[in-house]
């Protein structure tokens, strides 16, 4: 019986893909979080500091790699993104940032988020179920296609523009929107065709938690996350986005 129980425990751990150090925990009252569900999820799993405080770019890349498995070009890609965070640092150390520093408008946060309110309404960092309900209404199938993801993006921008008298989405905001969409499509699907599992994506956004319990796993060393794949998928999202904008 002891052998059977041990075998079951080992099997369960393998399926969930988590070790004891990276079990999910919600943010505590004094922990800091960002408008980015991925970074928040990595902090909630302990791949980034659970406090959300004093994060160096090296720690950012190490945490993303530990949780997701990045190819070397992706490490460089995210390092460049991480350097942006340092420009908004409030830590007192120019080489570190708090996750809450990313609340800075138009850094990575922008109007017409898939899951956050615009800065005009005050809280531009907390998950907003009403906004996300609109987003996921454009994902009717078990898999999210690039086309459906692009339609959700267009719809959110249309709604945000209609309700926010100070709506503003500069070029960087559009670019970030496309890249963020490509990121969740690739992370929970593939970097060729998207087709992210809808249940994984919804679970991820609503819980700020990697969907290990639903069968998702960190990528293998033979299938690391590539920067080239992210950029190629972003281009495909852009094409479908433009098609959705003009009603094709």
UniProtKB/TrEMBL annotation:
Domain Heme haloperoxidase family profile: start-end pairs = 20-232
Q: Which cofactor does it need?
A: heme b
Q: Which PROSITE patterns match?
A: HEME_HALOPEROXIDASE
Pfam families in alphabetical order: Peroxidase_2
GO MF terms, alphabetically ordered: metal ion binding; peroxidase activity
Q: What are the record keywords, sorted?
A: Heme, Iron, Metal-binding, Oxidoreductase, Peroxidase, Signal
Q: Which domain of life is it from?
A: Eukaryota
Q: Does the keyword Iron belong to this entry?
A: yes
Entries under Gene3D superfamilies matching the protein: Chloroperoxidase-like
Q: Which InterPro entries match?
A: Chloroperoxidase, Chloroperoxidase-like_sf
Asked whether the UniProt record includes Cytoplasm among its keywords, one would answer: no
- Hey, which family's this protein in? Belongs to the chloroperoxidase family.
PANTHER family (alphabetical) = PEROXIDASE STCC, STERIGMATOCYSTIN BIOSYNTHESIS PEROXIDASE STCC-RELATED
Q: What is this protein called?
A: Sterigmatocystin biosynthesis peroxidase stcC
């Amino acid at each position: 019986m002891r052998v059977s129980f041990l075998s079951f425990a080992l099997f369960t751990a393998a399926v969930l893909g988590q070790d004891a150090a990276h079990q999910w925990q919600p943010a505590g009252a004094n922990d800091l979080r960002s408008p980015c569900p991925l970074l928040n999820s990595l902090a909630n799993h302990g791949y980034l500091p659970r406090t959300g405080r004093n994060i160096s770019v090296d720690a950012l890349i190490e945490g993303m790699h530990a949780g997701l498995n990045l190819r070397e070009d992706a490490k460089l890609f995210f390092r460049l993104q991480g350097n942006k965070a340092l420009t908004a640092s409030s830590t007192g150390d120019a080489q570190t940032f708090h996750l809450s520093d990313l609340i800075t408008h138009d850094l990575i946060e922008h109007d017409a988020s898939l899951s956050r309110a615009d800065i005009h309404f005050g809280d531009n960092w907390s998950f907003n179920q009403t906004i996300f309900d609109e987003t996921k209404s454009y994902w009717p199938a078990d898999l999210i296609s690039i086309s459906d993801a692009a339609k959700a993006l267009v719809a959110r921008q249309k709604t945000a523009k209609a309700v926010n008298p100070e709506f503003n989405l500069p070029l960087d905001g559009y670019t970030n929107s496309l890249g963020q969409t490509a990121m969740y499509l690739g992370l929970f699907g593939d970097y060729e065709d998207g087709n992210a599992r809808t249940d994984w994506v919804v679970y991820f956004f609503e819980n700020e938690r990697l969907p290990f319990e639903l069968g998702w796993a960190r990528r293998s060393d033979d299938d690391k996350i590539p920067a080239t794949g992210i950029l190629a998928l972003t281009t495909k999202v852009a094409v479908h986005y433009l098609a959705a904008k003009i009603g094709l």
